[in-house]
Design brief:
Radius of gyration: 29 Å
Strand content: 5-15%
């Protein structure tokens, strides 16, 4: 036996069944020993639920009380199912089926279809969007690409909630659901979609569940055969079960009750897909004799983070709130959460980037840091700020802002309008640059009022609205700027962010962060209208937004920062308010009796948080005009004022930067941005002090690259070590 066998990569399989129980806390051990009858595990964030249920299965198998082939464990993602299978193998319980609902149902459907229906199973439609497009065309309804995605999602929701086309309009009205199109239109498209599937002999993923349910209901012999094989069921993330999945689970069970479910109603954040915590909350009503175990020992987060998470839920209302779990941290104390108020969004992004840079300098790996926001359109300002700070990043669950289809299409349209100039009739009534941009983007789906509800149409609008806001800020910063100037600015920004994907800080929406964790988490943009999101209208929708923030808070192990900006852009009216969810939690916002003990965190104003020194207006060193745009302030001159840049020096700096980036395995912008190199080539610093006065050259970069840069500026090729002169 090699030493590697004992490493964390190759953990030693427990020698006995009792050894499987070693290391479990009392509640996890109770779960592992509850092998018969209905079992409900209410597991809070970070409490080791996967550990508990895999050890339960392994203990049952290793003790001989469960046969591996008789156990079916189901969860919601292939990643989670794969992780469960891996853990079971490490515990000596190979052979247990751990699958998603769809995977388990498809396997059964493929096996029993010839017997139940005859012939081969119809072809499975990998992507239904083209068929939905064909159905819409048959109904003479025109849908653009984003509307098509939303209508497709709506059909999926209808099917998992077992809603037939004819009932769709009434069910949507009863559920207070924001439909992406007129419900009667969607009903027609839905009905035509089902007809086309029959005509073309194809089925979709929802049909896999529906057809399996149909066979089990109609063919008792097949149902009995499945029930004879699977005697014990385990369902993870039970709060996310849809009505259709619950119906399938009931049919798998029959009149038996060997079912173990695991979930947390406070982490229900996917109701828009048909998920509901009702099955979890009603479990004890349906199974009066159920064993109920609560896992509340939090092994992930510090007491300070857990204290905030508990305080956040203490204000919740509704059924899920009545069953909330009060977490108890098992970790040593850590730093208090930091609440930071900024004047505007760019300042918030810059302050966040500086804090991240400080954490990395203090030894926190970039891959253990995340910036979480409500919608993907918020990512652009953080992509830019991290790039300017030289911090590598990666996006999760979304394309980089300038790589999104709608942003690329908008860029092409703006470039075409700029090229046409006064010959484009679309711009006839546009008085200034923002008006021109609004006119052009109106042809791509931008409107003055956002579309109702969420979905692809809303996501597209948010991206276009971000471009409109950028144009407004650009026009304020550069008086007389043209559409061509804006296009050039967009190209510069896109170029700076098209670096290869590297391991770095994670940028992600709150929804895509579910199931993940980091040492340091920055929750940004926490204002009314964004958290809760503006289209959350009903009490239940508001409570789901609160749960979404709770999920964000509980992603943090050690460092947690919550921030918001009082206005959108520099100099704007400070009309925004911090999220209502922070009331009673952040210092100075009132108090709650339930969170009276423990540290409440520290509160900082943006200027203090960013360590900015008070300063007067920044003036152009050429014409004396006041500078407001970040790039111009970095150069200390208006963008269109003459440059006295040493072109040869600039090229030497670029060559040096390329070599540095290659050695570090990072994008070039992480060394210095183009604008910073231009500023250096214009001002040709001779000392460390002169170099550090240039925006973009902070203490860390001065220490790391200062000697090389000063040597190049002096005519050399770069050296090591910084002269103290």
């Amino acid at each position: 036996m090699t030493a590697a066998t004992h490493s964390t990569l190759f953990p030693q399989v427990p020698e006995t069944a009792d050894a499987v129980l070693d290391g479990l806390d009392p509640e996890q051990r109770e779960v592992a020993l509850a092998l018969t009858g209905p079992v409900c595990v209410l597991a809070g964030a970070g409490t080791g639920k996967t550990r508990a249920i895999t050890h339960r299965i392994a203990y049952g198998v290793r003790s001989g009380r469960l046969q591996p082939a008789s156990v079916l464990a189901v969860t919601f993602t292939n990643r989670a199912a794969g992780e469960m299978r891996g853990r079971l193998r490490q515990l000596g319980a190979g052979g247990v089926q751990a699958r998603t609902f769809h995977s388990a149902a498809l396997r059964q459907l493929q096996f029993f279809w010839p017997k139940a229906v005859g012939g081969d199973l119809p072809r499975l439609l990998e992507r239904k969007i083209q068929l939905v497009a064909d159905a819409a065309a048959r109904c003479r309804v025109r849908l653009d690409r984003n509307e098509l995605r939303d209508v497709t999602g709506e059909i999926e929701w209808a099917k998992v909630t077992q809603t037939v086309p004819a009932d769709y309009p009434a069910i949507v009205a009863k559920a207070h659901r924001d439909a992406p199109r007129d419900p009667s239109e969607i009903s027609q498209i839905y009905a035509m979609y089902e007809q086309l599937k029959r005509d073309r002999s194809v089925i979709d993923f929802e049909d896999v569940l529906l057809l399996t349910v149909g066979i089990l209901q109609d063919r008792h012999d097949i149902a009995d055969q499945i029930r004879s094989q699977y005697q014990h069921f385990v369902v993870d993330e039970y709060q996310d079960v849809s009505p259709l999945q619950q119906r399938l689970l009931d049919l798998w069970l029959g009149d038996r009750d060997n079912l173990c479910v695991v979930g947390d109603a406070s982490q229900t954040i996917y109701s828009f897909t048909g998920a509901t915590p009702d099955h979890l909350l009603n479990f004890r009503t349906r199974h009066p004799g159920a064993t109920v175990v609560k896992l509340v020992r939090d092994y992930r987060s510090t007491p300070q983070v857990v204290h905030l998470a508990n305080g956040l839920l203490s204000q919740a209302r509704g059924r899920a709130a009545e069953h909330r779990l009060e977490l108890i941290s098992q970790r040593d104390p850590g730093p208090d959460p930091v609440y930071t108020e900024y004047a505007d969004e760019p300042t918030e992004a810059e302050g966040t980037a500086r804090r991240i840079r400080d954490l990395i300098a203090a030894g926190v790996p970039a891959g253990e840091i995340a910036v979480l926001y409500r919608i993907n359109a918020q990512s652009e300002v953080y992509e830019q700020a991290l790039a300017d700070a030289g911090v590598p990043y990666q996006l999760r669950g979304a394309e980089r802002f300038f790589e999104r289809q709608e942003v690329r299409e908008a860029g092409i349209a703006l470039r075409g309008a700029a090229r046409a100039g006064g010959n484009d009739s679309l711009l006839d009534d546009a008085e200034d640059l923002p008006a021109q941009v609004r006119a052009v983007l109106s042809t791509k789906g931008w409107t003055s009022q956002p579309p109702s509800g969420s979905g692809a149409v809303r996501d597209r609008w948010e991206s276009l609205a971000a471009l409109v806001r950028l144009a407004e800020d650009f026009a304020r910063a550069r008086s007389g700027a043209t559409l061509s100037d804006l296009v050039a600015e967009l190209d510069d920004r896109a170029a700076a962010q098209h670096a290869p994907t590297v391991q770095g800080v994670t940028l992600a929406s709150l929804h895509s962060a579910k199931g993940l964790e980091w040492d340091a988490v920055f929750l940004v943009g926490l204002t009314e209208g964004m958290m809760p999101i503006t289209y959350a209208k009903t009490d239940e929708q508001i409570e789901e937004e609160r749960r979404l923030l709770y999920v964000g808070v509980t992603r943090a192990r050690l460092h947690l920062t919550l921030s918001w900006a009082l206005s959108r852009s520099p100099g704007g009216r400070a009309s925004r308010r911090p999220s209502r969810f922070l009331k009673g939690l952040r210092p100075g916002s009132g108090s709650l009796g339930t969170v009276a003990s423990g540290g409440s965190g520290s509160f900082e104003r943006g200027a203090a948080a960013g360590r900015r020194k008070p300063r007067g207006p920044v003036l152009c060193r050429v014409c004396g005009a006041t500078l407001t745009e970040a790039g111009a302030m970095k150069l200390m001159r208006c963008e269109d004022c003459p440059s006295d840049m040493d072109e040869a020096l600039y090229e030497r700096l670029r060559d040096w930067r390329a070599d540095q980036a290659r050695e570090l395995g990072q994008p070039a912008y992480c060394v210095f941005t183009d604008k910073t190199l231009m500023a250096i080539a214009e001002r040709v610093p001779a000392t460390g002090g002169e170099l550090s006065s240039i925006s973009g050259v902070g203490a860390r970069k001065l220490d790391r690259f200062g000697a090389d840069v000063l040597a190049i500026c002096a005519g050399g090729d770069g050296g090591t070590g910084l002269d103290d002169s």
